Amino acid sequence: MKLAKNEFGIEKLFAITVPYNIESVKLIEKLGFKYEKRIKPFEDDEELLLFAKTL
Predict the structure, then answer these.
(1) pLDDT, tens digit, for every residue of 23-37?
(2) Cβ within 8 Å of residue 15, ≥6 positions away
(3) pLDDT at 20
(4) CA-based radius of gyration for the chain
(5) 38 - beta bridge partners?
(6) pTM here?
(7) Of 16, 22, 33, 44, which has the fewest CB atoms closer than 10 Å, so is most exposed?
(8) What is the rounded distance in angstroms from the CA atom of residue 29 to the CA atom of residue 27?
(9) If residue 16 lies in a helix (H) or strand (E), which one and from where to where?
């Protein structure tokens, strides 16, 4: 995350996972990401959880 901010000037990172992958949700939250919303990136895909973290 430091590299993304300091070397590349990235101000916000995103993470996505399926709702039923509880371990991934826990890890994403432990890393400081906050839940934003459910997304469906493709018409035939399932809904995913979108998390974001401002650096």
Answers:
(1) 999 999 999 999 999
(2) 28, 31, 33, 50, 51, 52, 53
(3) 97
(4) 12
(5) 49
(6) 0.87
(7) 44
(8) 5
(9) strand 12-17
